[in-house]
Amino acid sequence: MYQYQSEYWNNNILFRDYLRNYPIVLIHQLKEDLAEKYHMDRLLYASVKAPFIEAIINKAKNELKC
Known about the structure:
0% strand
């Protein structure tokens, strides 16, 4: 749960909207691969996919500046 319009809230909205606007099959494959590999360690799973999520958020922020 995030505070309304906080940085974390905004980042989650940016990520969601970016994926809605640019459906990426890659994320489904990435999540499946990571879930299979790290099925016993949720924290490691989350930390391994974090760079991908951060990259998408940064890309969405850059596109909004245009």
